[in-house]
């Protein structure tokens, strides 16, 4: 009798779990098409609208729920998460901030307009800095207007000595995010429903770590703002089931991904 009841009960124990990754909404720096990185730029009005009209409807329509949310320490990440939770009527869900989920540090390119940098150094060089796996932009210098606001920002107080970057390649960003992903993965496999609201390069790093993409393949991946990407995991084996699924209008997503990929004006 006991074995029979145990067998019946096992039918109702969830064997799958889902992870959702969302890139934050447009920031003030995105408006000017500037390299942002570790500068703490707030969301723009469009970024707020993206959170409310792109992310929230897609998550509600898919009936997704969350037990915990992970963000970076940068305000554009946390603001997007707060709006998502508030408009899904689940502001009670705990939010965990971690510096390791901060955007890739763009070194001395921070604050520069991408088009102006391309006009100076050439589009090929800019694309190398933006997308090449092992190419880091020039290190940030004290003459950069954002140097001191970044270095003295108390949101980075938890960065261990020797780990504060002055520039990062995609590879370096992946190495920073990897231990964080392992922590989140353990939480997922214990059954927690996790939402991660992060940054463009961090989202790409997670995609590579989760899907096992090659370095060449991840260079070609672009992530649109506020489009939820869902992954499904087998709780018994811990393995990923299929690939990531983007929620939302395919035409809208395609257009926004193309905008992210381009250097712009």
Automatic annotation (TrEMBL):
It is an enzyme of class 5 (isomerase). Its EC number is 5.4.2.11, 5.4.2.4. InterPro entries: His_Pase_superF_clade-1, His_PPase_superfam, PG/BPGM_mutase_AS, Phosphogly_mut1. Gene3D superfamilies: Phosphoglycerate mutase-like. One of its GO terms (molecular function) is bisphosphoglycerate mutase activity. It catalyses: (2R)-2-phosphoglycerate = (2R)-3-phosphoglycerate; (2R)-3-phospho-glyceroyl phosphate = (2R)-2,3-bisphosphoglycerate + H(+). HAMAP family: PGAM_GpmA (MF_01039). This is Phosphoglycerate mutase. It comes from Drosophila ananassae (Fruit fly). The lineage of its organism: Eukaryota, Metazoa, Ecdysozoa, Arthropoda, Hexapoda.
